[in-house]
Design a protein that fits this description.
about 40% helix; 3-stranded antiparallel β-sheet; alpha+beta; single chain; 5-stranded mixed β-sheet; PvuII Endonuclease, Chain A
C-alpha cells in the first residue's frame, strides 16, 4: 500500500506534467531511454505517440509536417517524407501494434518497438513505402470498423503488428532492424527517395523528376 507521502509526491509530479501539456518540446533534453520511460509512465497513450514522434524528428533535425498535409510526420532536406510509428509491448500478450498506417501516403516508415520488460530497450525498424505495402498484405488489419464497412472505405487506416519472438518478429529483426538510435536519426536526415527494383532496395538518381513526390 502506498503511503500518504508517496501519493502526495505522485500528485505533485502529475501537476507538473499537466503544466507542461502545452509545451511541445518538454523533456526534449532527456536521453532517448529516459524520454520513452517518462512518456510511458506519465502520459496517456493519446499523448505520448505524437510527443515521441516530435522528439525523434527534433533530434534528427528534420521538419515536422502538419497533419492537414496528409504526408506523414516529417520531411528532410531531400524532400523525403517519413511516418513514425511507436508501440510499447503489450503486457497482455507481449505484442507490438503499430496503428494508423495510411497506405495512400507516399512515405517511408521509421517504426519503434519499445519493451518495458527489458528496461525499455528500443528496436528501430526502417521500411520503405513499398515494404509497408508488402507487409500489409502479409500481416495487416483494419484499425477501425467491420470488414463489410471498410469495403466502401477507399482510405481505411491499417495496423501492423506481431507477438514478441514470433516468426514475424524475427523476420522484421532480420529484414528491417537498425543498429541504433543514431542510425535511425541519420536515415531520417539523409535518406533520399528509394524504389524497389526486382526485390532490391535501390536509391534513385537525383534527377529533378525523381525529387517529386
Amino acid at each position: 500500500m502506498e503511503t500518504l507521502k508517496e501519493l502526495l509526491e505522485r500528485g505533485r509530479i502529475k501537476r507538473e506534467i499537466q503544466k507542461q501539456s502545452g509545451n511541445k518540446s518538454a523533456w526534449f533534453d532527456y536521453s532517448p531511454i529516459n524520454f520513452y520511460i517518462k512518456m510511458h509512465l506519465d502520459l496517456p497513450s493519446q499523448s505520448y505517440g505524437s510527443r515521441i514522434q516530435n522528439y525523434v524528428c527534433a533530434k534528427a533535425g528534420v521538419d515536422t509536417v502538419p497533419g492537414k498535409e496528409d504526408r506523414g510526420d516529417c520531411v528532410n532536406a531531400y524532400n523525403v517524407y517519413h511516418e513514425l510509428k511507436v508501440s510499447y509491448k503489450s503486457y497482455k500478450d507481449c505484442s507490438y501494434n503499430f496503428l494508423q498506417i495510411r497506405l495512400w501516403q507516399d512515405v517511408d516508415y521509421l517504426v519503434l518497438g519499445i519493451d518495458p520488460d527489458d528496461d525499455y530497450k528500443t528496436s528501430y525498424y526502417y521500411l520503405t513505402h513499398e515494404q509497408v505495402i508488402e507487409e500489409d498484405s502479409l500481416i495487416g488489419h483494419n484499425c477501425h470498423g467491420t470488414k463489410e464497412a471498410n469495403k466502401s472505405n477507399n482510405k481505411p487506416t491499417r495496423k501492423l503488428g506481431f507477438v514478441e519472438n514470433s516468426f514475424t518478429h524475427r523476420r522484421w529483426i532480420k529484414q528491417y532492424k537498425l543498429a541504433s538510435f543514431e542510425e535511425a536519426l541519420s536515415i531520417l536526415k539523409n535518406s533520399k527517395r528509394k524504389i524497389i527494383i526486382n526485390g532490391k532496395l535501390t536509391r534513385r538518381k537525383t534527377f529533378p523528376f525523381f525529387e517529386q513526390r
